## 1
Amino acid sequence: MITRRDVVEILRRIVDPEIGLNIVETGLVYGIDTANGRVRVVMTMTTPACPVTGYLTGEVETTLRESFPEVQAVEVELVWDPPWDPLMMSEDARDRLGWTA
């Protein structure tokens, strides 16, 4: 059975090319559900006009399908509420980017 932790570890491989950090550390992943042979990821972008939206959502879906071939379905839901904020990044990510709270 695939766990939330399994999915998080896979998502850490996906790097936002604009920021250079993975999507988990940047706070783009809001939720993960692994029920009934399906994986659902709720995520956002740093802005609604983010030019890499299609790339990142596609990478999430493709990477999860390839990593968990036994999964019946992968769903990526893009949301804008709550809006992303730099405080959603891990402390380590903010430090690496030189952003202070």
## 2
Amino acid sequence: MLSVPASLDELGVIPELRAALRKLAASLPAAQRQDEIEVRQRIYLDLSDWPSVEKSTPHLHTIYQATWENHRLHLTYSENIGRVIQQFERVVDPYGLVAKAGEWHLVCAIDGKIRVYYVSRILKASTTGEYFERPTDFDLIGFWKAWCSRQEETHPSYPVTARISPDLIAILTLYSHERIHDAVTRAEPPDAEGWITVTLPFETFNDARRHILSFGRAVEVLDPEPLRLSVIDYAKQIVDFYSQQSKI
């Protein structure tokens, strides 16, 4: 008998869904296969290798019920826009929920355009009282795999391993780019001095150097070595320049 994954326990899974999931472990009689189809159209557990992170999802059960019953949702969502955290409201048609490495994602439609929202960033969620028609040809698993492929293609190609000071940790968790924010919040516990070691994702060598220099002594580059040496060189040039200016 198929055990229900921990991710689904967060939903407060109703007995009917729990029973339907167990059926996935065995061949189903034709009369019961519709139960499997209903589940797979709305819930998907992606077990591929993404960094694992546990985040708070206080509105998950409300979203799950709306997804299961084809009810429209009114959402208040937060997102990092540059260095500013902004909130916006949307009315969405919830097509499905996907759990990947401890993070729940809502696959939904807004005016017919499909979007993916992180459930942990949903600040408020309530049903509007309206029903919506699910597209009969929508494939949750197929859409999700295609979406993940697009995310991987746009992933930054210049990772930097660095030590981050306690003061900078607080700033990065609030205002930095979304990927840097996520990397810092997933970091291992601080060392005895309160610093964390984390891999920061940047687009290019120059992009990484520009950010690292702006952080001053609050960050230490450990790898890659060419970036570390370039940062040291820039720092020496700045010190030499101001030392000469003070002598004038």
